Amino acid sequence: MANRPRRFLLYSFAAVIPAIGLLAGTAAVAGASTISAPAATHSAAAEAKAIAVSEIKKLTVGFSPTDHHVGIKSPGFKGLSDVTSTNWAGYANTGSSFSDVSAHWTEPGTTCSSRTTSLAAFWVGIDGYSSGSVEQDGTMIECYNRTAYQFTWWEMYPTNDVQVVGQTAAAGDAITATVVRSGTSYKLTVTDATHTADSFSTTQTCSASSCVDSSAEWIAEAPTGSSGVEPLSNFGTWTASSAAVTEGSTAGSISSFTDDEITMIDSSGATKALPGALNSGGTGFSVTWKKAS
């Protein structure tokens, strides 16, 4: 099919991340007379992680009013339509009555070389590409105070905020994420085969009028905060594999249905995260980090 001239409203993380003071001074005062140096260091690290976890739990999924242009070919473009976004990179299927989306990946790592907070989320989902709801789950990286923290999570927008489940995910973990719909029920499952405590499964409901099931996605995302899109953590390359999707009664791969390739760009049009071509079976692709913001 030819490219479809249209504009999409993508739904994304809206991170509420207030400014956080450095912890070093507090830790030093608390530990000066009663805690040995190694214990003080451990205490500061634990406090930093607690703050990072607290801030991640404040993330919500919400509307991101950015332009998404169709027909601007990115390098190596292979999707049916080429879409640019300031917060998404990956692939989306469009249609109706999507009921199952899944993928595997090896959790990427990152190097947090700056005190600037940065984020990267990796997920599969139904809806959100051109609708007002999204049902999604996956993993997330946060760089906070030069340390990386990684999580598993799920979200049913606009019903609730992001629900953080696992706090011990790490680079190299074997991840499987699925969203399965049955009527108005959505089963959200993330399996971390490496750190099993991060695994979960939850069933949520959403009315047919609210969750229209008009798209399925496989996405690497830069969450959006109150001041705009947050810096994107340098995840190197994220590779989704064994991607599967069901539309109506037909099960297939990404390329089995109407698929759009999404390139993440900054406000000047420079590429921030670039998706590669689908593999020969349409079941996998990679997204490569290019720049933070």
Main beta sheet, described? Answer: 16 strands, mixed
CATH domain class name: Mainly Beta
How would the global form be characterised? globular
Mean pLDDT, all residues? 80
How many individual domains?
1
Structural class, please?
A: mainly beta
- Cα-atom radius of gyration: 19 Å
CATH superfamily: Peptidase G1
Summarize the model shown.
With 293 residues, the protein is mostly beta strands.
Layout of helices and strands:
Elements: E1 11-15, H1 24-31, H2 37-56, E2 60-63, E3 81-85, E4 88-94, E5 98-106, E6 118-127, E7 134-144, E8 147-157, E9 163-166, E10 174-182, E11 185-192, E12 200-205, E13 215-221, E14 224-225, E15 228-229, E16 237-247, E17 250-252, E18 258-265, E19 271-275, E20 285-289
Parallel strand pairs: 1-14, 3-18
Antiparallel strand pairs: 1-2, 4-13, 4-18, 5-10, 5-16, 6-7, 6-13, 7-8, 8-9, 10-11, 11-12, 14-15, 16-17, 16-20, 18-19, 19-20
Helix pairs in contact: 1-2
